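Data availability (excerpt). The following record was deposited with the supplementary files.
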Amino acid sequence: MLKDKNIIKIPSLIDMHVHFREPGFTYKETIKTGIEAALAGGFSGVCTMPNTKPVTDNPKIVKEILQKAKKYKFNIYPVAAITKNLDSLELVDFKELKKAGAIAFSNDGLPLLDKDVFLEALKSEELILSHCEDETVEVNWQIEQFAKAINLGYNPKLHFCHISKKESIDLIRAAKQKGLKITCETAPHYFTFTNEDVDNTGTFKMNPPLGSQKDKKAVMDGLLDNTIDVIATDHAPHSMEEKLKPYVESPNGITGLETALSLSYELLGLDKTIEKMAINPRKILNIINTKTVNFAPDMTWIVNPKEFKTMCKVSPYKGMKLKGKIVK
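Predicted structure:
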């Protein structure tokens, strides 16, 4: 890392979990505004989730997303659906989608709950990014299906998205100790907030929901002992009108691209943050980094969502004083 007037060059970051909302929901975010937010946060690439409209379940949509990203000279790694339209039990054509440019497969937004279909997906030997809602229950049986796929002679690849609960982390730790090569991520909101922070609007509403103090500590411990491999953002923007509705009426989702690096750096320090946000994501995705970004480790700043590049100007981090910032 090169130093110059307390600005250092660090590897650019990769976010394994974002929602850029295009196609279909461009009033929430567009590929253009999502990319601008990602660049502001130090990212040179992101994995976009498939719960678009139409669903990213066919080569045409994958190619359209890649074409738009190319225009902005930014690396989008599209994640395609596991099942057609996310709501069926019919598996997509993994080979055709991979050929079109899909980097992995996920039913983010509508978790795949059929154990047999999940096993068939693992047997594709493509990277499966598992979105769990009844988190600990689903983590438990999916680890069992992963082990079953191995016993059947396959080489499955399984990565758990946005892990947030102590019991889930304990299960993943135990599986890793048995030699199962699964990986997982958490997000900054799970080591920053708890359910005690939730207000009566949708500002703190996300899925999985914020956990207890015990869960928050478990997430922090899991990052430190490498049970948790990756910090992703689950950047999921909505309109201000939607997010500021009463909690029960508001949609799940939180923006995170422009705050994740600072929050992680304050918790873990620079080396561990780079490991979780730059090195490990690339290892899991099997991609190579050639880019660096300028980081000011001592710069303090106040989070002002009005200054965000993302279209969503609602943030639970509003007013927080953070340390460390990407600079041009």
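Summary of structural features: DSSP finds eleven helices and twelve strands in the chain.
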